[in-house]
Batch of 4 targets.
Target 1
Amino acid sequence: MPRFLKEFFDRNGLGIGSLMLGLVLFWTIGLIILPQLSMLDFSFRPNLPPPEIGGPKDVYTMENYKYLVFGPEGGSQDYNAVDLKVFYRTLVAAIFVTIFNLILCYPIAYYLAQTKGNHIRIFALMLIIPYWINEILRAFALRIIFGETGVLNNLLVAAGIFDTPFDFVRNDIALYAGLGYAYILLMIFPIYNVIESLDRNQIEAARDMGASWPMIHRRVVIPYAKPGISSGCTMVFMLSAGALAAPQILGGPSSLWFTQLIYQQFNDNSDWPQGAAYAVVLLVTCILLVLALMRVFKVNMGDIGK
Amino acid sequence: MKNLSFMRLSIWIYLAVFFAYLLGPLVIMSITAFNSPEFPRATPWECLTFEWFSALFQDERILNGIKNSILVGAGTVVLSVAMGLAGALMLTQIWPKLRATYYTIIIAPILVPGVVIGISTLVFWDRINRMVGLGADSFLSNGLFLTVIGQSTFIASYCMLVLVARLQRYDTALTEAALDLGATHAQAFRKVLLPFMKPAIASAAVLAFLASFENYNTTTFTFGEYPTLTIELAQKVRYGITPAISALAFIIVLLTVFAALFNEANIRRKELVAEARKEATVEELSSGQFKLPGFLSSNWAAVALVIVACATVTVVGTATVYSPQQCIADVQEQKRLETELRIQELKRQRELRRQQQEAEQGSSTAPAQSKPAGNDSGFGGVFAPTNLEGETEQQGSTESEGNNSGFGGVFAPSTLSGEDTSEGSGN
């Protein structure tokens, strides 16, 4: 037995130690690493009926990835314009939602973290309550508001701002509002956690030296809160790029989200390898994008999730 | 000073807007649960009704979904808290060199899109199933098993984060002392570490259950024959929405508020009791004369809890005796009357206009009067104003007769106004 294993069992005892080791190995290897690898492997295979899997036709192929870029073979277009456009729009919209959330949440997080008092607890409670409620129901609530005969349209028409009801759903406004709504808490908490540990004296000192409010935020608070901001942005970006419920419920009839394409491949076309290939593309692109942005803003991976 | 108060005001406005965005949708959705129209809407308000709640409780699919959700939730809580605890303990002991890699691996599922986790779980266990050679209906392809496994993959990471936070404050000397005093490892774990971790385990379990209960992205690929509540809701919402869903949402909101207030009230009470104990003298404490603060005294959360509870009891009480039939009939009657009034109004206007026209025509020159004489031409009288009038009048009267169908209110104004414009252009 290697020395570190022996030490491990000495410290934890044989029973508890092996239980711990077993659970951790099951989780990391059986649930996290192997399924991802298996999905990657699967995405390089052709779509075969079950009896032929493992047979002579089951060879590695780039077909599924080619499909995303070039479309069906012998198709009329050179590129798979529809799917690529959906992919591009999903990423851009996710970035947009992330920025919107950051701008919306930073002042709130700062206020909650730097103010003392009983009402802060009430605010925290009010923040958390919406997140105990089903994701689907939250999207449903927004659909009631943004619908053609919804509350917002009734209000706007009654106030005389619009003559006819404005179609928020078709213009994707409902979708962006829904995505932003869904992940507010994930943006606020990391930023809040970091700013809460910021010494108030630093702000006071900066103010005594004559710094204006924007200056204090730019030079003192934001640099300090950078790990929280980046971790919040990463989570919001990844989750909104990978969202499925909100686009299904709030998306316009003509606009698709990339996850909806994956869903269609799996459930409507039952082309699993194709769906897996799309999922791999989504995952890899998102990770690369996040890593690139983290490098630009000089943030470490270790700061995420703290 | 003026600057400061301006800033304070803008902060409050910002907070108000923010919380309106956050809570407004939930409030409006809750209101729609009590409004009588078939389509969930808060405006215009028609009748207070509780029928959507009874519709909800008669929905087999929803009830079945709740059952499945609870099953999946229970499995996920057990598996992910166990894995999270093991993962957290491992994090404190692992080789420093491996630590960063290990941390990245166990934190990654939080960032991986749920869709990807669902797909990879499905694909992987399908392959295992084939390798082992079990049939298509083995437990490895069972929806319940796959959903629990898929959800636990990332929910265990949440649990791990919660548990690690508490574990960092654990003094390992306690375990060592227990071992020195002759406890076995299992005893030390059960009697020393677990009691210390108990609050964190409880909150991790609650978090795991909630996360499992509301998960959609992963479950939608793995559920098989066990659609959870979220899946059922999504299917309902995608293919036509009814206020029954609002009713369910309202119940969930209410339960959440109850749980949150209860938790808050408990925390606050503990604080108050601790404070009171600190202030009490030794004699008071030893003689048992020490007076605990009342449950409601200076505890806003407890007061709110009691108010919400009373309101709920009142509403449920009203719901059992209240019948909206009268009100619905009234609203229909009112709609009918409104429609009739509108028709009358239109008729009168038209009559007025015709009279005006006649007056004008009468005063104008002869050629205008000769127009109706050309009626034998191909177009007949279609464009003649008088003809149209006859038509609309007829329609109007049939409409007012057929009003009991309930559609009268919907279609009459638009058809009438359509005719109206065509008549206008005919003129």
Target 2
Amino acid sequence: MIPIVGLVVGVALGLWFQPDVPESLRPYLPIAIIAALDAVVGALRALGERRFDDRVFVVSFTSNVLIAAFMVFLGDQLGVGSQLSTGVVVVLGIRIFANAAAIRRRIFHA
Amino acid sequence: MSEVDRSESLLTQRAEGLLEQIAEQALDDDYYVVRPDSPTRVDRLLTGVATACFALMVTVAAVQTQLDRPSSDRQRAALAEDVQVRQDVQSQRKATVNGLTKEVAKLSAEADQTDPALAALLARTAGSDVSGPGLQITLAPAANDGGPGDVSDRDLQTLANGLWSMGAEAISINGQRLGTLSSIRVAGQSITVNYRSIEPPYVIAAIGNPDRLKDRMNDGQLGQYWQTRADRTGIGFNVKTKDYLQLKKINEARLKLSHATVLEEGSEQ
């Protein structure tokens, strides 16, 4: 229940304030979203397997976002920002697909 | 492989490749740790906050992308408009250039053909072909020794200058027209006019009023001097009036100024 409320509140806040993302933070937003999506899909899978734990979700969510942002920052500083971003997206994408496949198997038994 | 012993087996067994390993460990291992205690309220609230953060990020990114699009469109439109304006300006200027070029061509053609002052100047400075009545003087040297029986470059110079002072409008020696940069010099055995050597007999053609030229020549000091010299040394000195003489214009190279430039308007010409 609380997560759904959080979801609604987040969307409402975003639509209400329409905050302008500072230019310096723009490269981090897409990667942070991918990382957060990874944590969320993982949480959904754990929920389906009845292993969901709030603390694990919060910690994985926070660390995913922070580490992804840090890697983009590091890549920018090293001059390989796009390559490192690609690597991060590939790894997180594989995880997202694997978790989504597990959810799909559980729901549809296929 | 059952889910329970998977975490243990992963510790001992390496996945074949890095990507497979990632796919295998897609779910955080911590979820597999069994926790006896049930989650607290704070934990649940934090979950809500994390979800809200996620939703906020997605929404903000979407809104940002939506907002950015019109501005980039505006920029592109402004740039396109800029390009269009500059192209218009360029084509306008091209048209102006074309018009001015035509005008210049037309004006210079007119000036060349119709300006009588320019035509007169060109005729006097050997810049154009001229024809008309005049005087023809033939000088045939009696000797080739540089003595009184020979004709020197100085003789030709004084004759030419004399003809100018008598009112000749155009002079040529053996077909070499005399202009402002012409020279009559001796070079080796022969005399050169405009740096072209000429051979005797020397034919000096001068366009002008033929009768007046002839009178001045015969009555003047120059004509008498030559008559006397011809009588004494046997030089052939023959003065004839001609109804029609045609003198070609001077070689282009002797017509061009290399260093002198025209003074500004209002200065002495």
Target 3
Amino acid sequence: MSPWPESRAGASATPGAPEAPGAPDRRADVAALLEAAVGAGLIEQRAETDGTLYARVAAAAWRAAAACLAGSGFTRLEFLTCVDWDAHFTLTLQTYEMETRTVVRLAAYIPRDGVDVPTVSDLWPAANWEERETHDQFGVVFAGHPDLRRILNPERWEGHPLRRDYVDHVDITRPPYF
Amino acid sequence: MPIDRDIAPPVPDAAAALGADITPRPAEPGAAPERLVPEEGLDQLPEDVQDFLINVGPHHPGTHGVLRLVTRLDGEKVVGLDVRIGYMHRSLEKIAENRTYHQIIAFTDRTADYLAATHNDWVYCLAAEQLLGIEVPERAEYLRVITGEINRMTSHLLSIGALGLDSGATTYFLWCFAARERLVHLFEELCGARLTYVFHRLGGVGYDVPPGWVEKAHEAVHSVIEELPRFRTLFHDNYIWHLRSKGISHLNEAEARRLGAQGPVLRSAGVKWDLRRDMPYSIYDRFEFDIPVGTTGDVYDRTEVRFHEIIESAKIVRQALTDLPAGPVIAPRVPRLPAPPSGAEAYARLESPRGEIGCYLVSDGSIKPRRMKWRGASFHNLGMLPQLAVGYTLSDLINIVGTLDPVMGDVDR
């Protein structure tokens, strides 16, 4: 017997969500949707080993691709971040659809400086803080973000710590082992 | 005294008595109290309203860590809220860029969510093992599930106990801690640590269980479950607690999905979503357990979901302890200095006591990761706090923060 009273358990049924995984694979469908939304802006797509659909778009198509995903059922934003590759940043976000468990990782190469990226915080409220963090740690400016302040580092902190060329003026770390 | 598992009532029966006193309330989607939020925002209060700017924190016993809430009050009502975080920022992600794949493990349980340390190690190991292609032995998977679920019980006991403390029920807090202590002893015997267990390794776990530990674990988990009806009488069915919690901070299903609520907060709003069932990892597809969900998503429901998840975790621990197979606890020939190919990346997610946590690893071909992104559940839950707390009183705000259960280590990283 469930410890939860029956009436509550009955109210819990989520319409549209299957009880167990095994829902249809939407990856091909999503790739087609993305291609329709951004056209030639879709540069690369592949399936990762864990089944995630990896799609890389042009920087100019970042917002359109994100809006396409957010508008077609991808309601859960997992993370939004940057990877510093010295020559460029790889702006990455990952989102999944609860009904079919389809996971999409969207990436775009952006220049390290001087480019404003359109915000996606109006598409996913969870992206608000994630973009603030990316701004704080990498110096990426998200155009249209409602409240683009530093979030983890102090307001007066100099530099963006997760950039690979960041010079730590308060160096209290030991020399590296390797 | 060892219990005889054939005679002692199984966990679901012991738990069945718990629901007897709850009168289920119908869902009242339109019943949220009218909020006193000025449409224009923080600076646009009516002129005849005298408002106060009150700093709650960063050092405040009700904020569960160094969290600063800048609140704008109209009388006792919160009409504006700005959440300031970062007071405990240690940059786990930068540290990880300067460590080899094996060295990172000890940092994940200290620097991220320290109340659910095994889950942090676990999710890092899942991501790194996916990146390096390491297979985990069967016994190690079971030990990971057992420690993970016991850790979920300790974490939830602390969460609901601290909530009692926030609302004046000090006895309840002490009872929860006494129960939690029995589970912490299990960890102490298993790996020597009481809070930050560096139990996981790439490819398995660090140690096998000591002799007699399985029986002790059965007994300890059972004794905690047996105590829960007493907890319910003292706190959860208490009239004062009902007044303090019911109808406070409503969250309906659509709003919970839109705002990106995590874990128990999402489930309390009626969304039956748990990664252990919906995107299964490890060996969770072998166990039978229920997913407690609420209806109104208020403070009461969030507490109830956590309370019932303790019972569900106990069910899983029981099954896993009974089925625990023999064999090695770590994969053979795990490379000492693994260097995945450049450009390889992996993401792993799992259901921690606070919701979905994740670890995103990117390799540049060297022995250290190019980037590790930590996705904390508390970070996402705390981001919703202004939407949940504005319109309620300052004393409710403390309880609302308590039911979001933020661990500042997970928020600030």
Target 4
Amino acid sequence: MGGPRGTEKAELPLTALRDGESGIITSVGEGHGGGHGRGGGWGFKKRLMNMGLTPGTRVTVVKSAPFHGPLEVSVRGSRLALGRGMAERVFVELTK
Amino acid sequence: MTEKKLTIALAGNANVGKSVIFNQLTGLHQHIGNWPGKTVEKAEGTLHFKGYTIDIVDLPGIYSLSTFSIEELVSREYIAVERPDLVINIVDASVLERNLFFTLQLMELETPMVMALNQIDMAEKKGIRIDYKKLQKILGIPVVPTVAIKGTGVYELLERSVEIIEKGEINPPMIKYGEEVEERIREITKLIEKIPFRYPSRWAAIKLLEGDEQVEKEIREIGPEILPTAERLAKEIEGIHGHSCSTIITSERYEAVGKIAREVQQIVPKIRPPVSETLHTLTTHKILGYPIMVLVVLAMFQSIFTFGNYASELLSNLLYGWEPLFGGLLGTGIVKELVWGGVVEGIIAGVTVALPYIAPFYFILYLLEDSGYLSRIAFLMDTLMHKIGLHGKAFIPVMLGYGCNVPACLGCRIMETERERLLAAFVTTLIPCAARTVIILGLVGAFVGIQWALALYIIDLLVIFLLGRLAFKALPGEPTALIMEMSDYRFPHLKTVGKQTWFRLEEFIKISFPLIIVGSLMIKLMEILNLLGPIANILSPITVTWLGLPAITGITLIFGVLRKELTLIMLATLLGTTDFARVLTPLQMIVFTLVAMLYVPCVATIAALVKEFGWKKALFISVFEIIFAIFVGGITLRLLILTKV
């Protein structure tokens, strides 16, 4: 896709959000080795889920650390640090 | 019933004040060991209450009850298999939703439970009010509000716990999933009920649908015919929802949790953000965060070394003062040499390092951890650590390594996977610890120039970077990205911090002292038997031919395995002078220091590696580092000669 930003219902990776922006999680990628939640990505995805990043949840990017560092996100009333590798696989729909 | 013994387990997410409650409950009657066969710590304590002797088991802090890390596995196995009389679930009131997620999973393990709703004061400060009576009613378990750090509610917590145990088994209502999921859970539950499985059947059924590897493995051994059915049913659910089965179950759990949280909590946003919030913003700031971190770390090392140098001198003066006493007792023969020079000096060496440096080191570190600052450092350093295939949390053991490699190796436990623990431990053994700093500054810094000492540090960082990257590529497996909670800053509980320091110190002593003593004894024996000269000669192809050093340095490098700073002291003894410029060329000093800096840290670190990773890996790392150090030393020598510096 050319420029997903700005369009109303585009799916964006969490890393595309600017500081202070929020989105509703649409899906969480499988990571490497995919499979139906049973492959190599199992631990990774499960971990994100267990931290509360489930589809339908609202998540806010508070800020990101410099030099392509991790994101600070706010989800379900808790504050999480998410490495880029994790955040890239969380897809959201931008909300106002 | 003559002896009324009870066992209560404490379970909860990380950073909810669990260890504070543990300390409030058990006071001084506690001990720390390891879970059988695991590197996970097991803290136990005893208390007496209303005629009962109660054993309190502090389960490791976790995020959920799925097998992602060893901590989680240990906890759920304990609850389901050892069946404590009761589980106290400790919950951080200021992050209720995330914590309740864990509560619901605990309930699925079908254990009697009481909830400690902790840190209610902090929640209030954030503007969060929780109707705990309503929560109690919804969950069907007693909920006791507590402020552990002040001891508030701890007595009542115990009272309610004993009450629940006396009343006998209560089965808290479990959450219900969507009917299409429930139906399939029931189907699998029926199958599991027919086999002698050690976990509750319904729980196991849910775990099978979630694709839990550990449960699958155990079921395969006793009822392999269940697995295809479970897989088929999971596929059916996936077909209905279009998400993976584990996603659906987790989502539904969170949905249930969200509903409860909305019902019981009232959030009134504060006009002025609490101090902890401001602190968080500052310490994770894009620009300001880094200078603050540098200042904090420098202040930490500065205070440790100032205190350490002072206390160490005081202690060694005191302890070495006993030598005449020993002389009087044992005479001046071989026995005295061995007992004093081998055993006692070994102990003194250990004591003068452990107490003055390691103890304050741990204390400050736990202070920083308990307050919440370490997770901010991990946040800031994540990018850098990724260059060597680790994430931000690995910076904590690395930082520890500059003080002493032993706690650093043990500190690698915070990493999530075995692979990362090993990788992080390997990197930390290359960090110049305080003892190596003594050599770098005392030899190169003092006699060649401070810029050369600095160059050595930079070389060391390059080496760490290169080897770290190599190891990261060589070790099978994938890197894990950072995911951690940054809980609110809070005032650390000094007693808990002190206790943690003490337990760590005890562990350090247990690991390092025996080896330091045996090592000192062996070297003393070699000295008495006049073996040092021949050994120096055997080593001379390496020391003289390859490294261009005097033959005698071979012996000092062997001594260095015991304690690195001994290398310098030995060098002075063997060369007969502390004016190293008279006996060594600047080039020799640089090469010598470089080798001393890079080869295996010391015997205590090797012991720590053995404890954490087993003999094979420890031996491999040690041998590799020795060969590598010698190799780099020789190359550097030739390079420096070539460039005629």
